[in-house]
Amino acid sequence: MSVKEKTLFVLRFLVCIIVIMHIELLIGSRFGRIREENYYKLEGNTISCSIILNGSMYQSSGRPVGFNYELLRIFADYNNSTVTVDPPISSPDCWEMLLRNDYDILVFNLKDSIPEEYRKKIYISTPIRGDDVWIVSKEHRKTINAVNFWIAEFQKGKSYKQIAYRYFRSYRIDPYSESGLSNALSPYDAIVKKYSKYIGIDWRLLSAIIYQESRYYMGAQSSRSAKGLMQIKQSTAARYGIDDIYDPDLNVKAGTLHIDYLLNIYRKEGVDSANVIKFALAAYNAGEGRIQECRNVADSLGYNANEWDEVVKVFDKMPNFSGKETKRYVNAIMEKYESYKEIIR
Length: 345
What we know:
Blueprint: H1 3-42, E1 46-52, H2 63-78, E2 82-86, H3 93-99, E3 105-109, E4 122-124, E5 132-137, H4 141-154, H5 158-168, H6 176-179, H7 189-199, H8 203-214, H9 234-239, H10 248-268, H11 273-286, H12 288-300, H13 308-312, H14 324-343
Parallel strand pairs: 1-2, 1-3
Antiparallel strand pairs: 3-5, 4-5
């Protein structure tokens, strides 16, 4: 190769390097601007969401609600923002609210059908888990970019795997009844332990109450407007200064404080520790006023008003209250509590 050819080869090589570096610089700069723009725009904002996932309180399919709720909070924290999550509403209202910017994000499962008229007006995230996705209106392109950037990174880490395991592992107690001890009862054990300690009751008892009320489904709603893990009404939560009963932590806090209130009613009346729990559970289910009426009738008929088994005898004598549901409720919780004590310490 001549000197001239060598010189041309070197020049061409240098030109190629410069071009490649320039392209990388442009791509990197563009990527950086997109990333900075997306996350900067979210910082300090309140992200309004709703979780539109079908799931029965009696099935594990209810767990994606809690799973996505927790991820939404982590996503908001990552972006130095706050998140509000409203209880689900019916379609098409939720889609209209998304397009009106009442919601920034809808959590949705793609196995369900997105109405045709909305499909061209939304952006859909990469999968969160399975067919669960987060959806935004086309006005929120920056939000969906931020979601996709974040979830791609978060799914690679241990935290995502740990949260997914906590929500989707098996919590069946049957295998442990004879073969050994379990180490967890629900995805919400940490919350339950925190508030049970706060009022000084066994966390396994509180867990049994939550199981009976909602099967650990944070999205549970009753026909009587009771919501969440402990099926709390807004009026009850307000008594304890709590306004967001959809939040699992605050829902359990409100329910626990109400249980404590009921326990103290019967403790002050001299009910012993064995019966005080049963009366509190009955009052949680039927209301303290109704249970007090039953106790008054029991006392008037010569029964011991401080003994649960004695008061139960007058249920069939009460007007407009058979007491069958309440009796089943108390028995179911006490049985579940005994089962929990056998499998977990």
